[in-house]
Amino acid sequence: MNIKIGEISQDNYRWGNFHYRLKIGWREPTTILGVILTILFFYLIFIPILSLLIDAIQIQFGDERRAGGILGDFTTYYFKRTLFSPVSQILFWEPLKHTLSISLGVILVSLSVGSILAWLLSRTDMFGSKWFATALIVPYMLPSWTFALAWRTLFKNRAVGGLEGWFENLGLIPPDWLAYGQFPITTILSLHYIPFVILLFGNALKRFDTQLEDAAKVLGTSPRNVALRIILPLMLPSLMSATILIFAKCLGEFGVSYVLGLPVNYDVLATSLYRSIASRQTGVASILAAAIMTIGIISLLIDARFIRESRKFVTIGTKGAMNRINKLGFYRFPATMLASIIFMISVALPLLVLFLSTVMRIPGDFSLSNFTFDYWIGENLKFAYYRSGILLTPELWAVIWNTLKIVGFASICSGILGILVGYIVVRSPIRSVANFLRHITFFPYLVPGIAFGAAYLSLFAIQRGPIPALYGTTALLILALTADQMPFASRAGISAMMQLGKDPEEAAQMSGASWFSRMVFIVIPIQKGSLVAGTLLPFISGIRGLSLFVILAVPNTDVLTTFSLRLLDYNYTQAANAVVIIISAIAYFGTLAAQKITKTNLAEGLGD
Question: What is the rounded CA–CA span in Å between residue 123 and residue 332?
Fold first, then answer.
C-alpha cells in the first residue's frame, strides 16, 4: 500500500474535527430538538408515502384470490391491472389522457390571457390598473370548484337529476359537451389560474429594465424583433415556471373534475383515484396515487431547475434602471374592457349566480315571487331537505365548529413547528439534521393533495404497532393537514430566522438565560409576525382545501368543503351553494386579513 503520512494526518484531523463538532453540538438543546423534529416529520411525511408505495406491491384484503396469493404477499397484480389489463383504459389511460389534455388547454388559455393582462397591468396606462391588479387575482383566493358549482347551476341538463339548470328552465337545453366534461373543466381551471400567470409574469415584467428595449429601438430593431429577441427570452423563465406549476396543480385538481366530470363519467387521475378508494380497490388506488405523485414531483423538479437557470437572466438594471409605462392611446379603453370582462366572468358572475341560486325556489325564474331567503333563514320548510334554512341548521354549525377545530388546531401546530424548523435549519450545528428538515418539510408541496390524502389513509386505516387506527377521527385530519401545510409554515420560519441575528440570544445567554427562556422571551416575540403568517396562511388554505379532506373525511368529521359536496351529491343545490359562498367569504376575507397582518400584497407578485 502506498499511503502518505500527510493523508493519514489530514484524515485524522477531519475525523477529529467532525467528532469535536458533533460532541459540542449534542450539548445544545437545538440539536436534541432537531433530532426530535426529524423523527416526527420522518413519520408524518416520509412513512405515509412509503406505506402507500408498499400497498401497491402487497396483496390487500379481499384480493387474495384474484392476485393468487395470501394477504401481505408481494405482487405485481395491481401494477398490471392498473396499467396493462382490459380495465386499464378506464382506470388509468383514459384519465391520464383527460388530465393531460385539460392541463394543456389550461396552460394555453392561462398563458395567452394572463400574459396580456400582466403586461397591461404592469407596463401600460390602462384605466384602473391598480384596482384590477387586486381584482383580477380574486379567483386565485377562492376555491376553484366555486366556479364549477356556478357553471353547473347555469348549464346543468337532464343528464343529471335534481333541480334544473337555469338555461334548461328557460327552455334552452345545453349540450353535454357544454354542461360537463373537458370544455367546462378547462375553462374554469383557466380562469382560476390566469391570476397565477398575472402574478408570476407580471412580477418579472415589473423588474425588467425598459432601457434594453430603448437601446434596441435606437439601433433600428423593429418592435416585433424587440418582443421576440429581447423581451421574450428574458421573460421565458417566468413563463416556463408558470407553465410547470399550473400543470402540477392541474394534475391533482379534484373539485372541478368531481363537479363537472363525474356526472358523465369523465374521469381524470384525481377522480379515478377517488373512485378506486370509494370502491375499496386499495392496491389500484396506491398505483394511481404513486403515478400522480411521480408526475407531480418530476414537474416541480423541472420548475426548480428553471428557477436556477433563470438566475442567468439579468432583468434588473443598475440605479438607472427604468420601468417605463407604455401609452395605449386609442387602445386604452378596449384594454380596460378586456380586463373588466375577465373580472366579470371569473369573479362577479359566478358569485352572483351562486348567491341568486340560494334565493330562488325555481332555478332561472326571475319573477319577484320566486325569490326567497328561506334557504338561508326560513323555518318549517316544505320544499327543502332541511326543515330550516341553512343558517338555522344545527348540522351546519356543527360542521363549522368542526372545520375551525381541525383547521385551526392544525394551523397553530404548523405555525409553531414552522418556527422551530426555521430555528433548527438556521441555528443547528449539525448541518445534516438542518438539511434534512429543510427538504422533508418541503416534500408535501411536491405531492398533490389527493395523493397525500391517500398516503395517510394507507398508513392510518388500520392499527400499526402502538398507533391505533385513526380513520374516521379528527386526529387523522389534523395530522394530515399539519403535515400538508408544512411547506408554507417551514418556509416562513426559515425566512424569518435567516433575518434574525444571533446577538440577542447570545446576550441573553451571557446573562444566564436558559435556551427555553431565550425562545419564549426573545425569539418568539421577535418572530411573532412570522408565527402569525405561518399560522394564518395554512388556516386559509385549509378552510378552502378539498383534495386532502375528501379522501380522509367521513360524515362525522365533515369540514365545510366536504359538507358542501355531500349536499351536492344529494342534489340539495341551494344548500350546497350557500355553504360554498360561506367558504369563499372566509377564504377571501381571510386572505385580506393575512395580507394586512403580514404587511404583504399578493397583487405585487409571488416573487421567485
Answer: 12
